[in-house]
């Protein structure tokens, strides 16, 4: 069997943890399997490198940032190869150049175009454990590029897809995917399995176990993922096409505090206004989430929407600059809001799921200010102070607890 194992930064944070990972890889190898290991940078290395760059030049180019950030993963892969070699097992570390991990040119946010399998296969034929830098690629200018924060998961999936691996295991510091964040909801339960679509919703909602694009890519190429802990032997959660529904409509409840609400008041109630507003924001690369438009009154209407907190200042500035052409009378915003979402492939064919969620929130006396839905998700916007209470209420309301 060919097995890809990806370990996050906390799993390789120091000498002891590096050897812990090395042992797990050697164990797999000794079963007769081919082992490819994808690593993140050690501990908080990436954050530290970003801080260092800021000290030198806060406006450093993205190219130089990527040149700097890709060093983090080179440190962890070479140390891992040394650790495994010291245990008497042949190992080789490779970076994105050596493998041929070809990406788009977008520094800081590159996407994979093609992964060469030859060098990796060649090393595996020599019965080496192959250790590859996560998070990085090479663009057509032969420069290093990075995939965006948390991108090593996507590297692992790209390699698993390119080499038709039998398993792709994502090791992290949690045991798997839970019905809710166990730090907030005490009786949260670990899921045996979850579908790609549910996982995609959870990933983008800030469940933070997997990089969004890794799930997209896994779905596209049919790569089954296992999320599990590097610190214990527990089974983990399988992410695959059709997950066993465990007789439940809802797989989990997620929250996201990284959100703010913006309202534009008194814009003209005529065709094209919403288009212009959101097009202006899109051109600035601002991602808009939940949108709510009021019914027109006296020729004007109000539109509210949410953006991530990082994008709030840009959003307000852009709207202010274009106030006249967008026919805006007033711009308001609220920062201390949060999203709570329920996710479940089972809700598609079942009426009453939304009502149940709203009932749970009502019972907990939590006020809802916006609502949005997709086929596998219902999201409400609430006050940030209500998040913990709301999570517990909804989790209990659907009987998700252990
Ligand atoms: N080291 C990179 C980061 O911290 C990539 C990763 O960990 O997946 O974002
Ligand atoms: Mg991660």
Mean pLDDT reading: 94
- Under CATH, the homologous superfamily of the domain at 2-173 reads Acetylglutamate kinase-like
* SSE pattern, N- to C-terminal: EHEHHEHEEHEEEHEEHHEEEHEEHEHEEH
Could you name the CATH topology of the domain at 2-173? Carbamate kinase
At CATH's second level, what is the architecture of the domain at 2-173?
3-Layer(aba) Sandwich
Task: List low-pLDDT spans.
Answer: none
Q: Largest sheet, order of strands side by side?
A: 3-6-2-1-9-11-12-10
Count of DSSP strands? 18
**Beta-strand percent range:** 25-35%
Helix/strand/pairing class, anyone? alpha/beta
Radius of gyration: 23 Å
Q: Which bin fits the share of residues in helices?
A: 25-40%
Provide the CATH top-level class of the domain at 2-173: Alpha Beta
Characteristics of this structure?
single chain; 402 residues; alpha/beta; Carbamate kinase; 8-stranded mixed sheet; 6-stranded antiparallel sheet; 12 helices; 18 strands; 36% helix; 27% strand; binds aspartic acid; binds magnesium ion
Can you put this structure into words, describing what you see?
Helices cover 36% and strands 27% of the residues. The chain contains twelve helices and 18 strands. The chain has helices at residues 15-30, 45-56, 62-86, 96-99, 118-125, 152-162, 196-207, 212-221, 273-283, 309-321, 353-363, 387-397, and strands at 2-7, 34-39, 91-94, 101-103, 112-115, 129-133, 136-138, 144-146, 167-172, 193-195, 225-229, 237-240, 252-268, 288-293, 300-307, 330-343, 370-374, 377-383. The chain has an eight-stranded mixed sheet with strand order 3-6-2-1-9-11-12-10, sandwiched between helices. A six-stranded antiparallel sheet has the order 14-15-13-16-18-17, sandwiched between helices. Helix 2 packs antiparallel against helix 3. The longest helix is centred in the N-terminal third of the chain and has 25 residues, at 62-86. Bound molecules: aspartic acid and magnesium ion. Aspartic acid is lined by residues 8-9, 40-41, 46, 72, 134-135, 149-152.
């Amino acid at each position: 069997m060919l097995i890809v194992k990806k370990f996050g930064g906390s799993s390789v944070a120091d000498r002891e943890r590096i050897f812990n990972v090395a042992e797990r890889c050697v164990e797999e190898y000794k079963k007769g399997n081919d082992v490819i290991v994808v690593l993140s940078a050690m501990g908080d290395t990436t954050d530290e490198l970003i801080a260092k760059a800021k000290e030198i030049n806060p406006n450093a180019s993205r190219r130089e940032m990527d040149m700097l950030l890709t060093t983090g993963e080179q440190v962890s892969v070479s140390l891992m190869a040394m650790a495994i070699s010291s245990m008497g097992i042949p190992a080789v570390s490779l970076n994105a150049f050596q493998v041929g991990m070809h990406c788009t040119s977008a520094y800081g946010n590159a996407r994979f175009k093609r992964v060469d399998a030859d060098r990796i296969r060649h090393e595996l034929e020599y019965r080496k454990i192959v250790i590859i830098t996560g998070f990085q690629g090479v663009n057509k200018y032969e420069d290093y590029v990075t995939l965006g924060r948390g991108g090593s998961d996507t590297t692992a999936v790209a390699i698993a897809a390119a080499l038709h691996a039998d398993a792709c295991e994502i090791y992290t510091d949690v045991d798997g995917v839970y019905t809710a964040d166990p730090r907030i909801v005490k009786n949260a339960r670990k899921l045996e399995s979850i579908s790609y679509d549910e996982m995609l919703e959870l990933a983008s909602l800030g469940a933070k176990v997997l990089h969004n694009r890794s799930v997209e890519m896994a779905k596209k190429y049919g790569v089954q993922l296992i999320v599990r802990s590097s610190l214990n032997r527990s089974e983990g959660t399988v992410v695959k096409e059709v997950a066993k529904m465990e007789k439940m409509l809802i797989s989990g409840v997620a929250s996201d505090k990284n959100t703010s609400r913006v309202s534009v008041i008194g814009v003209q109630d005529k065709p094209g206004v919403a288009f212009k507003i959101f097009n202006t924001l899109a051109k600035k690369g601002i991602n808009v989430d939940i949108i709510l438009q009021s019914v027109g009154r006296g020729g004007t209407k109000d539109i509210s929407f949410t953006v991530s907190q990082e994008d709030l200042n840009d959003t307000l500035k852009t709207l202010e600059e274009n106030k006249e052409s967008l026919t805006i009378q007033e711009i308001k915003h609220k920062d201390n809001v949060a999203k709570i979402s329920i996710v479940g492939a089972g809700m598609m064919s079942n009426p009453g799921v939304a009502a149940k969620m709203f009932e749970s929130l009502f019972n907990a006396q939590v006020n809802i200010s916006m609502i949005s839905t997709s086929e596998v998700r219902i999201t409400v916007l609430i006050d940030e102070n209500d998040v913990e209470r709301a999570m517990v209420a909804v989790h209990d309301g659907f009987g998700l607890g252990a």
